[in-house]
Structure formats: C-alpha cells, structure tokens
Amino acid sequence: MLLDLISSAPQYRMLLAAMAKRGWPAQMTGLGHIHKAAVTAALSETGPFIVVTPDEAMATRLCEDVNAFAGKEKALVYPAREFTFRNVEGVSREYEFARLKVLNGISQGRICLVVCSIEALLQYTLPPKTLRENTLALHPGEEHSLQALSARLLHAGYERRDQVEGVCQFSQRGGILDFYPPHAPAPYRMEFWGDEIDTISTFDLDSQRRIDTVKEALITPAREVLYPDNAWLVKRLGKAYDALRGKQGVKSKEILLADMEKLEAGLSLNNIDKFLPLIYPQPATLLDYLPDAGLIFCEMVSVKEASKTSMWQHYEDVSQLLQEGVLFKGCDTFAMEFPQVLAAMEGRPCAILENFARSLPEVRLSELVSLNAVALSPWGGDLKLLEEDLDSFLRRDYRVAVLAGTDKAAAALRDDLAALHIPVAAGERELTAGRVCVLSGSLSGGMELPELKFALITHGKAATKTVKRKKSKKPGEQIRSLSDLTFGDYVVHAAHGIGVFEGVVKREIHGVTK
C-alpha cells in the first residue's frame, strides 16, 4: 500500500523511465534517509538491485527500513570482511558466513535485493561457477557414502566437531551426519540406512533435538577461498615459489615453503585468504552474481570518498605484508578499483539517490529529478503530540498512515484515536484523504510528501516488540567415572555447586569408612 503510493509520484515515474533506458544513471535529490529507503523499496518491485552505501552502518539501517516498507525480509546486507593473511588462531568468520549466505541466496534465486557498503562491493570473493560446483542438494532416498559426504564438507571449508555447535560445522556419529550450512536458519541432521539417506530434518543447537522433517538439504561452501585439494594447491604454490626473486623473494620463499609442508602433511591453512589471487585467476565480486541487476547509489560522492579511504588502507596493509614476505608480487590484489564499479554501470538501470544535488565529473546524468520530501522525527508515544500532528495533516486533507509498532499497539491506538474523535480508516490498509490509517510495524523515521498530500508517522524502533531470547544453559559434560577427572579440574556438584577436584580420600563418618 505504502509502496503503491510512492510509485504514484510523478518524480518516481520519471526516475523509473530514465533508468529503463539503461544509459547514464538518473539522479533523484531531496531525499533523506527514510525517503531513500522508500524509493529503494519501490524500485525493488521492478527487478533485482544492488544498493551501495558509503558505510556498513548506513547499509544496515537502510536494509531494515526497506524490509519494513516491503513488509517482509526482501533485502539482505552483504557485509565487508577482514581477510586473514597471517597465521593466527581463533579468527572470527562471522562476516564471511553472512556473505556466503547472501551469495547462496542469490544463486538459489531467493534474493533479489542486496544492500552493501562500497568496501564490501569492491572485495573479491569466489566465482559463481565455483559456488555452484561446490553446492550439492541431498534428498531422502538418495544413496551417498557417508565418508564421501564428510570429505566433501571438509573440502567445502566445514569444521569437523564431535557435536555441531555453530555455523559451518559438521559431525558424524555412526549413521548420522549433522551439518550447518551458512545459508540455513537451522542445522540439518541426516540419518542413513546403509548408504541411503533415510530422513533429513532440522534440529536445535542447544537441545540437539530434531525440529522438522525436510525434503532437501544443501551442502554449500563454508569458505570464500576453495581449492580442489592440497596437491593441487602445492603445485600452484610451487610455481609461485620458483618465480620469486630478490631480497623480498627470500622471505616469501621461506614462508611459502612452510605452507607447502603443512599442505603436504594433510593439514589445512587458516590463512588461506592470502592465496585468493593464485586460486582464482579471475576472481569475482557481488556484481558477477547479479549481472543484470540495477545499481542504486546512496550519496555517490560519499561512496567515492569511502572507496578511496578503504583502498588506501588496503594498499597500506598489503604493502606491509609484501615487505614481511607474507604476500608476494602476483599474490597481492584482493579488491577491484572504483573505476571498475563505474564501468559496471553501463548497460544496467542505475539510480543515484541524494539529499542535495551533487555530482561527480566522471558520471554523466541522464535525468535529474527533485522530490519535495520532508523527514519526520519518530513519534515518542505521547498521545497529545500525536493528536496535534494528526490535526494539522487532516485539516489539509492529507492521507495519513501511522505505524504503531506491534499489532496490539496498533489496535489500542485505533481505539484511542476513535475516543478522541479522530477519523480512523475502516480498513487496516486503507489510505483515504482526511482519515488516519493505523498499521503495525515501525521505521527509523517518518516522512511527509506535500505534493502527494501524504504523511507517514512512525513510532520509534523501541516500540517494536522484541522477544528476549533466554540464554539456554548448555548441559555440562557428564562425568561417568572418577578416572575422567584430573587434579585441578573445575566441576559442578549436584548438591554443592561449583568446586575444584583435588582427589579422592577415605573418610570415616558415623563409623562407616567411605
């Protein structure tokens, strides 16, 4: 309903018509953050889009508001990640998992709107072909070797555990295979009868109990840098080793030799990211996953400045690593340049959404559209202030929508407004001049569109009902024998609580020795 109203604006139709020509981008000015989210949500109804922002914070906020306008999770954030070049332990791969979730969703045709910072867009990742080749659909009744599936999971970057406790882990116990792909909302459990998949179900991480039976489970990559096997990589590294020359080459050879020895011993490298240029001679970016998608830039000048800052820091880091021999010539490029982003605009529908009219010398505009829009602060919950705002809009015969937060809050607000004799729309999703339509949901801010005689008032984000998830207490490891304990172990006694195990002694109590 709200998107239909946005789409009816003459300026929006001008923007859409200019973008359809797939020439130079069209620019719309006069847009605050909430207006950018509204226009983006409306444009997403016309096809797939990649939305580029100056930073991650703006991308996250924009994604939340676009989904609020759409009424569903239509957009996902594609975050930037930290490449691991040094041999360190305990590296968090949370952002890498989030990126893989987006890439898998695009590959499966489930995602058509992606919001990202310019840094994330510039970074290289695995090519779409590599992702497809390392994706396997499993169904009940099919025959697969458990050993072969375990080997495939290891190759795809999953970590073997005794029990699956997080994303991109797997475990095998007898005829049961558990694994948690990055795209899935819950881990999968496959029960085998011989080599035949008997059942596939999801299960809860905390209780380890099954939830629902499903008809399909996908094994998808758990890393952005994948290679066929250790022997293949050793061969590639050997060629690079032979080509190294000079003083810096000596340092790199020493480090490369140590890496090759690990691989030949059957070990994996936790800093495999540094070999991305060798493994993928033609690396990909998010643009390669959505080759026909349109591009929307929020604050283009800021996007360019952010790209310069990001790439400056990247080159500083790479330069230091080259001096240390961790990286070497030919294995030192992990992101594309901003001009390549500008080149990718050719042949795509493109829009630039700005607050004020600003331009870049290297970007010609096919159309410049100005929207008369006003940003409204979120409503804090004071009914008297809301009454005053509504009275102002209704006297001017505006169509007004109020987002009250939860369904319960929306129902209560309708009753409160009716008690104040404020005309409320009969239908929950009916926008009528001179009436107030109360809806559930919330945005980061409201808006007024004077030319459309429309106002949107929203309760602050705090109004949205949030369910606090209770931290489930993971059961401790059961002690089946005293031999399981060693001196100094921390234990939890069933009656006495936390203690330290200091050994076993004989005690005489009431004449009985125990």
Main attributes of the structure:
single chain, 514 residues, alpha/beta, seven-stranded parallel sheet, six-stranded mixed sheet, 16 helices, 34% helix, globular
Overall mean confidence score, pLDDT: 88
| Number of contiguous helices | 16
Distance between the termini: 77 Å
Low-confidence stretches: 462-475
Strand order of the largest sheet: 3-4-2-13-14-1-15
- Tell me the structural class: alpha/beta
- Computed Rg: 29 Å
- Estimate the global geometry from the Cα principal axes: globular
Percentage of β-strand residues: 15-25%
Question: Helicity range of the residues?
Answer: 25-40%
Number of strands: 24
Let me know the largest β-sheet: 7 strands, parallel
Walk me through what this model shows.
- 34% of the residues lie in helices and 19% in strands.
- With 514 residues, it is an alpha/beta fold.
- Strands 3-4-2-13-14-1-15 form a seven-stranded parallel beta sheet, with helices on both faces. A six-stranded mixed beta sheet has the order 6-7-8-9-10-11, with helices on one face. Strands 16-19-20-17-18 form a five-stranded mixed beta sheet, with helices on both faces.
- The model is unreliable at 462-475 (pLDDT under 50).
SSE layout and pairings?
Blueprint: H1 2-7, H2 10-20, E1 26-29, H3 33-43, E2 49-53, H4 56-70, E3 75-78, H5 94-107, E4 113-117, H6 118-122, H7 128-133, E5 136-138, H8 146-155, E6 159-160, E7 169-173, E8 176-179, E9 188-193, E10 196-203, E11 210-213, E12 217-219, H9 230-243, H10 246-264, H11 276-279, H12 286-289, E13 294-298, H13 300-324, H14 338-344, E14 350-353, E15 367-370, E16 374-376, H15 383-395, E17 399-403, H16 407-419, E18 436-439, E19 446-449, E20 454-458, E21 490-493, E22 497-500, E23 508-509, E24 512-513
Parallel strand pairs: 1-14, 1-15, 2-4, 2-13, 3-4, 6-7, 13-14, 17-18, 17-20
Antiparallel strand pairs: 5-12, 7-8, 8-9, 9-10, 10-11, 16-19, 19-20, 21-22, 23-24
Helix pairs in contact: 3-4, 9-10
